[in-house]
Amino acid sequence: MPTPLSPTDFTRAAAQTLAGQTGVVVAGIDDLELYLEVLGQPTRLQLDHFYDIYLADPQSLPAILHSLFESLHDVPPNRTITDPAMLLQRIMPMLKPLALLNEIHEQQIPLLLYRPFLGELMITYVIDEGETVAYVSRDHLASWGLAEELVHQQALTNLRQRTTPPRISGTGHHSLLIWASNDGYDATRLLLPELLQPFARQLGGNVVLGVPSRDLLLGFGDDDSIIFEHLAAQITEDATTGPFPLTDQLFTLRNGRIQLYQQE
Question: Does 1 fall in a domain?
Answer without folding.
Answer: no
